Amino acid sequence: MAETTDSEKPVYKFESLGVHAGLSRKENVSFVFENSAHGAAIFNMTAEAFCYSRIANPTVSVFEARMAALEGGEAALATSSGSAALFTTITALAQRGSNIVVASSVSESTAHILKHRLPPLGINARFVENGSIEKVGEAVDKDTKFVLAESISGDELFVSDIEALAEAAHSKGIPFIVDNTAGAGGFLIRPIDHGADIVIQDASPWISISGSNSAGIIIDSGKFDWSQSPERFPQFFEPSPGFHGLKIWEKFGKLSFISYARAAIMRDTGPCLNPFEAFQLIAGLETLSVRLERISSNSLKLAEWLRDNERVVAVRYPGLSKHATFRLNTKYLKRGYGGLLSVSLAGSPDILQRLPGKLKLVSLGQSIGGSRTIIVPQSGGSSEANPTVWISVGLESIDDIIADLKQALPNSEK
């Protein structure tokens, strides 16, 4: 039977890709080399086959291919956590003396990496307040390797202007990278469709059903032309000492970044995703669309209810378009507004200590993006007067979620 050509392959929509993308019934998954030369060629990137799970694994590869399809990218690399995805991306592109420009507010864990882990390596993060497009351009110099932003910022849930930031980065000859954790695997936002070159994300929230898996993912759009800035990225153009002088760009072209991240950073430092986690995440992708539809619906209703609650000082949620403190780019949100709310409560921080005893359905915890509704205290965003929490909204009945919070919040000072 003749093989199906690319032009004959059906084009599936997001929901179908979540179930089928990446599957192949013809892959050789045996990890067997034809001979020693074949094995050496695989490790040196001159031949392609599965050789070692730290570099590539059949189950992990299905997850990578599916995530690339859902995000609209050409290739992906799975990692052991969201932090590993960020750090792998940084170290694949930046070296001592480099800097990166951060064009949005970022989550606490990302801020720790940028502020505390990079300086000892000689890499500097330049933070641009409020993601000002003009200031982003001003912050870029000859040593800047990329512009970074979160699609929906982790602290105040602002929606970044992806198209404008991508244009600002490209005008300086550097890639634009988006942390799309809040975009839920491309269901809510697909940054690559709007000009992003690389997408990274914590693959635990929303992608996994429980929200408690440890995984990350890097997706390469395959659209950035690295050859326009060879002086910024010499690792792609100069002979690679770790690969017998192989020139990455000559072999991999516009997929040089993701290929180098896998073959050099992943191979040598080992932040790989284990196959069992990949298996669970693949299962999660099959139901991602229907879960996010329910979660987004619940979240909007809860945000509207909390906004009118006397125990609540402020609610930040992209769906509350009339909220005065929001800078919204809701044109990027086509399928809903996600499952995360930032809520400032009236009263002292002691409220958070009393809430667990009042709540009967909703829980306090740290894992967001799962099937259960969780309240996550935010130490960095709380003041003595107005403690701030995230609410990660789950799949329960919205009536039950509201009823539980209603009976708990008015009594939180008693």
UniProtKB/TrEMBL annotation:
Pfam families: Cys_Met_Meta_PP (PF01053). GO terms for molecular function: cysteine synthase activity; lyase activity; O-acetylhomoserine aminocarboxypropyltransferase activity; pyridoxal phosphate binding. The keyword Zinc-finger does not apply. The keyword Lyase applies. Keywords: Lyase, Pyridoxal phosphate, Transferase. InterPro entries: Cys/Met-Metab_PyrdxlP-dep_enz, OAc-hSer/O-AcSer_sulfhydrylase, PyrdxlP-dep_Trfase, PyrdxlP-dep_Trfase_major, PyrdxlP-dep_Trfase_small. Its cofactor is pyridoxal 5'-phosphate. One of its GO terms (cellular component) is cytoplasm. SUPFAM superfamilies: PLP-dependent transferases. GO terms for biological process: cysteine biosynthetic process from serine; L-homocysteine biosynthetic process; transsulfuration. Transmembrane segments: none annotated. Belongs to the trans-sulfuration enzymes family. This is Related to cystathionine beta-lyases/cystathionine gamma-synthases. It comes from Phialocephala subalpina. The lineage of its organism: Eukaryota, Fungi, Dikarya, Ascomycota, Pezizomycotina.
